Amino acid sequence: MQHLPLIPAPTRIEIADGAFRLVATTPVSGELADLLADELHTITGARPHVGGHGKIRLRISGEGRSESYHLTVTEHRVTLTGADRAGLRYGIWTLVQAVRRSGEGWEIPALDIHDAPRFAYRGFMIDVVRHFFDVATVETLIDRAARLKLNALHLHLSDDQGWRLEIASRPELTAKASGTAAFGDSGGHFTQADYARIVAHAASYDMIVVPEIDLPGHTHAVGVAYPDLVEEPVLTREMLDTVEAFGGDVPVKGEPCTSIPVGFSQLRIHHEPTYDFLADVLGEVAALTPGPLVHVGGDECLGTDPADFAYFMERVTTLVAGLGKTPVVWHEAGAAEGLARGTVGQFWGLRSNDEQVAAKARTFPERGGGVILSPADAIYLDMKYDEDEPLGLTWAGFVSLEQSYDWDPATLIDGIGEDAVLGVEAPTWTEKLTSLEELDHMMFPRIASAAEIGWSPAPEGHAWRTWTSFSGRLAGIAPLWEAQGIAFHRAPGVDWR
């Protein structure tokens, strides 16, 4: 069976004989016609005429499942119908991927596609704390992720190494705690206008932004701005070993953190000014964010008493819910009994399915929420590909491209079936990443695995949902990625020729 270079794999596809010939004068008409014309120009070098009754016709029907589309290509006409604007846009990305060389010209093979996402949430995360990335870089990553039908950007905005979002009611956060990054590199922050620009750019691709203020650990930077709100660092032998191995200074309360150990920082939990601070910060974050989700961390609170942790997570998730948002937390917070009902858990453990970790994750659907799956040894995109990779980290092991594709959300965690899974998210942490080129190298092509796992049907019964098919389609999409300027890694196991 012929497998066109389409990623993610469509739900249903039939390929016929013949092709639609693209020429410089091919007219495009309908909604989002300018977008398709721009995309075709990137590939072919010629921008089609927009308007009239084009041979390529685009429309939104207002019918069918959200984000779905129907694409039909014959020798004489291309018809693309989206159930909504997002569906039409996703159909455009598929259409663009199908364009291929034909002699000195270009063509689209005759086909019929009915397509819709398996999961509603298909995300990627960028850590802008360990190293800061400006608005233009974030917008570029949105552009690239959207073309793989991802629809959520999780922005990790606060951590030990810095604070990255202007909070008008708490100006010291950016005045004192935003200037540095990991290993003493320069930092930065987003003004509220910057953040609004990112949100608007994402929305133009029908993508939401999920801001994260990591609490109650990962909060050393809060103490640089407001020392009264944090405890003294808890420095274990393991944390000191991390500092020695990777560099930077041992954390000191009130001074910027230049190293990358985790679990040493904590807010003062039984201190009412802490909750005044959180009301200010989360109130502004929620007001700036039109999307439904606000992430409040809950991970790696290694020095926090379990009872104090549960008390804090109950208060902070209740606060977020009271702001009209759905709280999202890392899976460790499932141990807290009093979480606001409907809180979403994000799993970042390993695929070994440790029972203690699984038990925490299972609490979220039991309490009216769901889970977002980010298995670290599959789609943490900052993990090294192999022992020869100079970038990234290895705490979750080496993660090859094939390994990033070798898992299924419905069977990842015992007791969490497909109905409880909201979707998939591929995080990129940036302790060792400092530029767009390095982000490209680590994210691509593995982000394509996450995109296909989030969008496409389960492997059983779908001929394209195999490693052999996926690797072949990746090779076919490489020229498009080159045309789009993506500095992707030519990972072993794919015949990139």
UniProtKB/TrEMBL annotation:
CDD domains: GH20_SpHex_like. It is an enzyme of class 3 (hydrolase). The keyword Kinase does not apply. InterPro entries: Beta_hexosaminidase_sua/sub, GH, Glyco_hydro_20_cat, Hex-like_dom2, HEX_bac_N. Residues 4-116 form the Beta-hexosaminidase bacterial type N-terminal domain. Its EC number is 3.2.1.52. Signal peptide: none annotated. Keywords: Glycosidase, Hydrolase. It catalyses: Hydrolysis of terminal non-reducing N-acetyl-D-hexosamine residues in N-acetyl-beta-D-hexosaminides. Residues 119-301, 310-457 form the Glycoside hydrolase family 20 catalytic domain. Belongs to the glycosyl hydrolase 20 family. This is beta-N-acetylhexosaminidase.
